Amino acid sequence: MSTGPEHRLDHVGIVVPSLDDAIEFFAEHLGARVEFLMDPFEDPTGAAPARLGAAHGRSFALGMLRLGNARLELLQWWPPHDAPASPADGVGGVHVAVEVADVPAALARLRAVPGVRVLGEPATFRGGQTPNLVNAFVTTPWGLLVELLTWLGPDETDV
Fold first, then answer.
1. Which Gene3D superfamilies match (predicted)?
2. Distance between CA 77 and CA 53 in Å, rounded?
3. First and final CA of the chain: distance in angstroms?
4. Backbone phi, then psi, for 139, in 5-degree steps?
5. Under 8 Å between Cβ of 96 and 62
6. Which of 11, 17, 56, 93 is such that its CA lies 20 to 30 A from the CA of 86?
7. Predicted TM-score (pTM) of this structure
8. Distance of CA 83 to the CA centre of its chain
Protein backbone atom coordinates (compact mmCIF):
# COMPACT_ATOMS: atom_id res chain seq x y z
CA MET A 1 0.00 0.00 0.00
CA SER A 2 1.34 3.39 -0.93
CA THR A 3 1.69 6.03 1.76
CA GLY A 4 2.85 8.85 -0.48
CA PRO A 5 1.52 12.39 -0.65
CA GLU A 6 -1.84 11.20 -2.02
CA HIS A 7 -2.64 9.80 1.44
CA ARG A 8 -3.44 12.11 4.31
CA LEU A 9 -5.79 12.28 7.23
CA ASP A 10 -8.85 14.25 6.13
CA HIS A 11 -10.75 14.47 9.41
CA VAL A 12 -11.65 12.72 12.63
CA GLY A 13 -15.35 12.11 13.24
CA ILE A 14 -16.75 12.10 16.74
CA VAL A 15 -20.30 11.56 17.95
CA VAL A 16 -21.31 14.13 20.55
CA PRO A 17 -24.45 14.44 22.66
CA SER A 18 -25.01 18.09 21.67
CA LEU A 19 -23.67 19.48 18.39
CA ASP A 20 -24.15 23.09 19.49
CA ASP A 21 -22.33 22.57 22.78
CA ALA A 22 -19.46 20.69 21.14
CA ILE A 23 -19.00 23.34 18.43
CA GLU A 24 -19.02 26.07 21.06
CA PHE A 25 -16.43 24.20 23.14
CA PHE A 26 -13.98 23.62 20.28
CA ALA A 27 -14.45 27.14 18.85
CA GLU A 28 -14.31 29.10 22.09
CA HIS A 29 -11.68 27.14 23.96
CA LEU A 30 -9.48 25.54 21.28
CA GLY A 31 -9.72 28.04 18.40
CA ALA A 32 -11.63 25.87 15.91
CA ARG A 33 -13.70 27.51 13.19
CA VAL A 34 -16.76 26.09 11.48
CA GLU A 35 -16.20 25.10 7.84
CA PHE A 36 -19.80 24.01 7.32
CA LEU A 37 -22.88 22.76 9.11
CA MET A 38 -25.34 20.17 7.88
CA ASP A 39 -28.88 20.49 9.21
CA PRO A 40 -30.55 17.46 10.73
CA PHE A 41 -30.85 14.84 8.01
CA GLU A 42 -33.59 12.27 7.96
CA ASP A 43 -33.61 9.45 5.44
CA PRO A 44 -36.89 7.52 5.45
CA THR A 45 -35.23 4.72 3.44
CA GLY A 46 -32.59 4.23 6.14
CA ALA A 47 -29.82 4.02 3.53
CA ALA A 48 -27.76 6.98 4.79
CA PRO A 49 -27.58 5.89 8.45
CA ALA A 50 -26.81 2.30 7.39
CA ARG A 51 -23.98 3.51 5.12
CA LEU A 52 -22.50 5.26 8.15
CA GLY A 53 -22.83 2.12 10.27
CA ALA A 54 -25.84 3.38 12.24
CA ALA A 55 -29.13 1.69 12.92
CA HIS A 56 -32.13 2.12 10.61
CA GLY A 57 -34.32 5.10 11.45
CA ARG A 58 -31.61 7.34 12.90
CA SER A 59 -31.23 10.96 11.83
CA PHE A 60 -28.19 13.16 12.29
CA ALA A 61 -26.70 16.63 11.96
CA LEU A 62 -23.03 17.44 11.62
CA GLY A 63 -20.53 20.25 11.82
CA MET A 64 -17.12 20.24 10.14
CA LEU A 65 -14.57 22.27 12.08
CA ARG A 66 -11.10 23.43 11.07
CA LEU A 67 -8.39 23.16 13.73
CA GLY A 68 -5.19 24.48 12.18
CA ASN A 69 -4.39 22.12 9.30
CA ALA A 70 -6.76 19.42 10.55
CA ARG A 71 -10.50 18.95 10.40
CA LEU A 72 -12.85 17.60 13.04
CA GLU A 73 -16.31 16.30 12.14
CA LEU A 74 -18.83 16.41 14.98
CA LEU A 75 -22.03 14.38 14.60
CA GLN A 76 -25.18 14.34 16.71
CA TRP A 77 -27.58 11.41 16.21
CA TRP A 78 -31.24 11.10 17.12
CA PRO A 79 -32.33 7.50 17.58
CA PRO A 80 -35.90 6.24 17.68
CA HIS A 81 -37.01 5.97 21.28
CA ASP A 82 -37.15 2.16 21.16
CA ALA A 83 -33.76 1.56 19.50
CA PRO A 84 -30.45 1.37 21.36
CA ALA A 85 -27.47 3.23 19.90
CA SER A 86 -25.05 1.22 17.80
CA PRO A 87 -21.26 1.61 18.10
CA ALA A 88 -21.36 3.95 15.09
CA ASP A 89 -23.93 6.34 16.52
CA GLY A 90 -23.19 6.15 20.23
CA VAL A 91 -21.32 9.02 21.85
CA GLY A 92 -17.62 8.38 21.76
CA GLY A 93 -14.20 8.53 20.31
CA VAL A 94 -10.82 7.58 21.69
CA HIS A 95 -9.32 11.06 21.78
CA VAL A 96 -8.62 14.13 19.73
CA ALA A 97 -5.12 15.60 19.74
CA VAL A 98 -4.95 19.38 19.37
CA GLU A 99 -1.58 21.06 18.80
CA VAL A 100 -1.32 24.30 20.79
CA ALA A 101 1.46 26.87 21.06
CA ASP A 102 1.74 26.59 24.85
CA VAL A 103 0.42 23.51 26.65
CA PRO A 104 0.53 24.99 30.19
CA ALA A 105 -1.30 28.14 29.01
CA ALA A 106 -3.97 26.11 27.18
CA LEU A 107 -4.37 23.92 30.25
CA ALA A 108 -4.77 27.00 32.46
CA ARG A 109 -7.51 28.38 30.16
CA LEU A 110 -9.35 25.07 30.11
CA ARG A 111 -9.22 24.69 33.92
CA ALA A 112 -11.66 27.61 34.09
CA VAL A 113 -14.21 26.01 31.76
CA PRO A 114 -17.14 24.46 33.64
CA GLY A 115 -17.25 20.70 33.20
CA VAL A 116 -13.68 20.35 31.90
CA ARG A 117 -11.56 17.94 33.93
CA VAL A 118 -7.78 18.26 33.81
CA LEU A 119 -6.20 14.80 34.03
CA GLY A 120 -2.69 15.86 34.97
CA GLU A 121 0.06 18.36 34.43
CA PRO A 122 2.05 18.63 31.18
CA ALA A 123 4.65 15.95 30.57
CA THR A 124 7.74 16.44 28.40
CA PHE A 125 9.21 13.48 26.56
CA ARG A 126 12.88 13.71 25.59
CA GLY A 127 13.44 10.23 24.19
CA GLY A 128 11.59 7.23 22.83
CA GLN A 129 9.14 7.47 19.95
CA THR A 130 8.05 11.04 20.78
CA PRO A 131 11.16 13.08 21.58
CA ASN A 132 10.43 16.73 22.45
CA LEU A 133 6.70 16.15 22.82
CA VAL A 134 4.91 18.08 25.55
CA ASN A 135 1.36 16.95 26.29
CA ALA A 136 -1.45 16.98 28.80
CA PHE A 137 -4.96 15.56 28.75
CA VAL A 138 -8.37 16.98 29.63
CA THR A 139 -11.90 15.74 29.24
CA THR A 140 -14.63 17.91 27.72
CA PRO A 141 -17.88 18.57 29.57
CA TRP A 142 -19.40 15.55 27.74
CA GLY A 143 -16.44 13.24 28.44
CA LEU A 144 -14.32 13.31 25.26
CA LEU A 145 -10.61 12.93 25.95
CA VAL A 146 -8.57 15.77 24.39
CA GLU A 147 -4.78 15.69 24.20
CA LEU A 148 -3.13 19.12 24.18
CA LEU A 149 0.32 18.90 22.64
CA THR A 150 3.25 20.82 21.26
CA TRP A 151 6.60 19.77 19.83
CA LEU A 152 9.65 21.50 21.30
CA GLY A 153 12.65 22.30 19.17
CA PRO A 154 15.85 20.47 20.19
CA ASP A 155 17.17 23.54 22.05
CA GLU A 156 13.97 24.46 23.88
CA THR A 157 13.63 23.87 27.62
CA ASP A 158 11.02 21.75 29.35
CA VAL A 159 7.74 23.32 30.36
1. 2,3-Dihydroxybiphenyl 1,2-Dioxygenase, domain 1 (3.10.180.10)
2. 12
3. 39
4. -115, 145
5. no
6. 11
7. 0.70
8. 26
